[in-house]
Amino acid sequence: MLTYVQILFALVRQQIGESWRSEDGSAVEKVILTAVFAALAIAVGAIIVAKVTAKANSINLN
Q1: 3-state class (DSSP) for residue 24
Q2: pLDDT tens digits along 11-37
Q3: Dihedral (C-alpha) 51, 7, 40, 52: value to the nearest 10 degrees?
Q4: For residues 30 and 25, what is the distance between their CA atoms, to the nearest angstrom?
Q5: In angstroms, rounded to a whole number, what is the distance separating the alpha carbons of residues 55 and 45?
Q6: b/e 17-44 (16+ beta carbons within 10 angstroms → b)
Q7: Contact at 8 Å (CB) between 31 and 41?
Q8: What DSSP designation does 23 have?
Q9: Any idea where the domains of the chain sit in the sequence?
Q10: How far apart are CA 34 and CA 7, in angstroms?
Q11: pTM of whole model > 0.70?
Q12: What is the distance between the alpha carbons of residues 19 and 6, in angstroms, rounded to a whole number?
């Protein structure tokens, strides 16, 4: 799963890099892509927090 996300991130970053270099792209496209990356970052953060919390709750302190 992590490899899939890394490959997807690399492909999207390559596409964004090409669109940011050209002046043909509109500001709306850049805003939408930035929002997509922000949403992905929040989703990944939420997944990490959920997994860490679950692992912490499973620790037996007795």
Answers
A1: coil
A2: 777 877 665 555 566 788 888 889 999
A3: 10
A4: 8
A5: 15
A6: eeeeeeeeeeeeeeeebeeeeeeeeeee
A7: no
A8: S
A9: 2-57
A10: 18
A11: no
A12: 20
How many percent of the chain have pLDDT more than 70? 82
Range 51-57 average pLDDT = 95
Q: Of 15, 55, 50, give the one whose Cα is nearest residue 7.
A: 15
Q: Please, which residues have CB within 8 angstroms of residue 25's CB and are 6 or more apart in sequence?
A: 19
Long-range contacts of 44-48 (CB under 8 A, 24+ apart): 44/5
**Start-end of H helices in the chain:** 2-21, 27-57
Tell me how far apart the alpha carbons of residues 29 and 37 are, in angstroms, rounded to a whole number: 12
Q: Which of 17, 14, 13 is nearest to 25 (CA)?
A: 17
